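To fix ideas, we give here one paired sequence and structure record:
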Amino acid sequence: MKIKEVVEILETNPKSWTISFQNEDSIVFAWDDYRFTRLSARFDSVMMLSSKFNRVNINWTPDNPLVAKFYADLVKEHLNKPPK
């Protein structure tokens, strides 16, 4: 899959991603073999999109508005749900 296609899924379908790992510093979202996360402040809050099979390995600065929106949308979709 091309990087553009993975980014499009991040942008248009946050429901397809799941939480792979979570601790007090970060959350790793997963889809297929791709991982998207924002590192802790200790690591300058870098946002990363990577693949287990090294098809993708991109780091973005946290001030990138498009990538920050992807992350916020994932958090909104998976963490900010009202209790049932």
Notes: The first strand starts at residue 18 and ends at 22. The CA atoms of residues 28 and 37 lie 5 Å apart.
